[in-house]
Structure formats: C-alpha cells, structure tokens
Design brief:
Blueprint: H1 9-12, H2 16-30, E1 34-39, H3 44-47, E2 52-54, H4 56-64, E3 70-74, H5 77-86, E4 92-94, H6 103-106, H7 110-122, E5 129-134, H8 139-147, E6 151-153, H9 158-166, E7 171-175, H10 178-187, E8 195-198, H11 209-214, E9 217-220, H12 225-228, H13 232-241, E10 246-249, H14 255-260, E11 263-264, H15 267-276, E12 282-286, H16 289-298, E13 303-306, H17 320-328, E14 335-336, H18 340-355
Parallel strand pairs: 1-2, 1-3, 3-4, 5-6, 5-7, 7-9, 8-9, 10-11, 10-12, 12-13
Antiparallel strand pairs: 4-14
Helix pairs in contact: 2-17, 4-5, 5-18, 8-18
Length: about 350
C-alpha cells in the first residue's frame, strides 16, 4: 500500500539553490535519525544528498543497518518496498515520488504469476520447479517465491541462484526479466531448446505442456527498456570509432549484445570495471545515462562513454523538489508500506539470497 499526494506548486517554484539549502537544513536537524539512499541511476543533484549510493539491494541493506528512524529511498517503488522488507522494527521508508515505478517489475503481476504456477501444477511440474525472481520485482512477487521455496537474485548473484535452485529441483521459473534469465541460463550451459519463454499475455503462456516438460529454464516475457535499447550495431560502431576500447554492458541487455561486449555485469560490476581501467583507457558502458555520466565525471583521466544515451524516466522523476517536500513533510507523505504477510514471505526469499 502506498500513500500518495501531489507535489505542491510551492516546491516546483523554488530555485535549485533554495531547495539545496532547505534539504541540507533538514539533514542537519535530523542527523542520524534520517538516512537518504541514492541509486546509481539518480541525477547528480539528488545523489549529492545521499548518505549511501549504490544498487537497490545494497542500499536496502545499508539503510536497515543504520540508526535512522526514517529512510528516504531515491529510486523506484520496488526498491523502496525491499527497503521496507529489510528494515528494522520502527524504521519507516519514504519514496520522494510515488509515481516512480518500474516498467520491468510491472510486467510480472502477481495474478499472472499465480496463473502460470497453476498451469505448472496442472501439468504436474510445479513440485519440480524453483521460482527465482530478480530484485527488480514487486514485494508480492518476492513473497510468491519465498512461499514456494524460491529465491531472489541480483544481476550479480543470478548465477549462484541458478546453482542453488538446480541443486534442489530440475527446473527454474525466472521472473521477470527475460534477458537476465537467458543470459544466466546460457552462462550455466543450458541449451537454447531447454530455455522456454512464458508470455503472460497469451493463453497458457503461449506454450504447450510438451514445451514446458522439455524446458529446464522458463523465462518470463519481461524487459527493461533502458537496456533493450542497446544493440549489436552500437557495439560495432563503438569499436570502429574508439579503437582498442573496452565495452561493458548490463545483463538486462539482449544475449547478442552481451555476447558482443567484452564483459557484462551488475551496476556495481560496471562501476568497478571503470575504476579498474588504467589511466587513458576508453570504456564504453551500456547502462543508464546518469550512471555513465557520473562515472565519466569521477574519472577524468579515462574516457568513459555511453554505448548510447538511454535514460530511465522513472528514476528521473526524483528531483530536488520532491526530495525537499518529502523531507519537510516527513512522516505525512510518500510513505511506502508492505502488508506483513507479504513482507514475511518476501524476506524468506531475500534471506535465501543472503545465505549464498
């Protein structure tokens, strides 16, 4: 459940300098009682006020480990939900813009996933399937996996999650990102004809019972538009323009793009790839433009370039104005909550990931 109100015009009309001063004043007043989390994809002016910068799971853990009573998550809603699930008793979580969603997470609705599971049960296969959901999913989907002996994974831990799942059962249902599921399955040596696409918009996923019985990995038809924007042609063009460059991309990219790049990995991996490159190197990065631009600023001794300009509009919704409003009205607007039973089962799936 989310509370939602519209950002008052009085905040929209303020200058950036005034907003910065007001945000800084609230931070100073609240001290350790407040923790601001900033995802890598946030704008520079927002990240400048973050106590921690990182990816979604890393931030949720760090927020829970602080003494803060109020956690303000500058990201999108599934990230704030995960922060709620991991939060200590008494901690409250806020999202500066409650309309900042995630189209990828929204492509796996709980009713659709329940319907897919019923189809697996009807085929007599559900007992042989371990559900895995990517961190970029709703708390309800994480809870679905938790309640069915499944697990959550990040883009960096998906391989370990596959190993964990295959040690228990013979099949995996991977939600909600098709490309991360395919790339992980390919890396695990799963044959193409053993990877099955489940399309929730089609009857019975658009597949037959025989298809499902043949599959070892069932991937959900979901995608991140930020990363499916990247193409093999863009990789080729980068190599032609910047001889000797290194191309690294996120595994939410299509398998052909991952295969064409020099490396792929999580946002943390991409950051570390830039940091580890020698002075004078050219690194072309296939991920959200705000992160690439920030890496370029922080490493002026290297040429850090975007594979293409791809922006996450939902991340961009978080602004100085919405952050200032949330802080000044802290406790009365933009609080994110998760029903206790959903939080309980979601935490089961997250704890299994932590055990890896």
């Amino acid at each position: 459940m989310h509370t939602q109100k519209v950002l008052p015009d009085t905040y929209r009309d303020q200058s950036d300098d005034d907003l910065r001063a007001r945000i800084a004043a609230v931070k100073k007043t609240l001290g350790e009682r407040l923790c601001i989390l900033g995802h890598y994809y946030q704008r520079d002016e927002v990240v400048s006020f973050a106590d921690f910068e990182g990816d979604s799971f890393e931030l949720a853990k760090k927020g829970a480990a602080t003494k803060a009573q109020s956690i303000v998550f500058c990201g999108v809603h599934f990230m704030a939900e995960s922060s709620v699930v991991l939060a200590r008793q008494g901690q409250r979580v806020f999202l500066p813009d409650m309309t900042a969603g995630c189209p990828l997470a929204d492509l796996a609705e709980i009713d659709q996933v329940n319907e897919a599971w019923r189809a697996l049960e009807a085929a007599g296969l559900a007992r042989d399937v371990t559900p895995i959901t990517y961190m970029n999913s709703s708390a309800a989907i994480k809870a679905f996996c938790g309640a069915r002996e499944g697990i959550v994974c990040t883009s960096s831990s998906s391989g370990k999650a596959f190993d964990w799942a295959f040690a228990r059962r013979n099949r995996i249902l991977f939600l909600p990102d098709e490309n991360l599921g395919r790339n992980t399955a390919i890396a695990a040596g799963i044959a193409d004809d053993e990877i099955l696409l489940w399309d929730p918009t089609l009857r019975d996923g658009g597949v037959t019972e025989a298809d499902v019985k043949r599959a070892r990995v069932i991937v959900w038809k979901g995608y991140c538009h930020v990363h499916t924007f990247f193409t093999v042609d863009q990789v080729r063009a980068a190599r032609e323009k910047y001889a000797g460059c290194t191309v690294v991309v996120h595994p939410e990219c299509e398998p052909a793009v991952v295969n064409a790049a020099d490396g792929s990995g999580s946002t943390a991996y991409l950051k570390e790839a830039v940091e580890a490159a020698p002075a004078g190197a050219t690194i072309v990065v296939g991920t959200e433009i705000n992160m690439v631009a920030r890496l370029a600023k922080r490493h002026p001794d290297k040429q850090v370039l975007p594979l293409a300009r791809s922006l996450c509009p939902n991340m961009f919704k978080i602004s100085l104005a919405s952050l200032c409003w949330t802080l000044e009205a802290l406790g009365s607007v933009n609080e994110v909550s998760v029903p206790p039973e959903i939080a309980r089962d979601a935490k089961l799936a997250l704890d299994r990931m932590l055990s890896l």
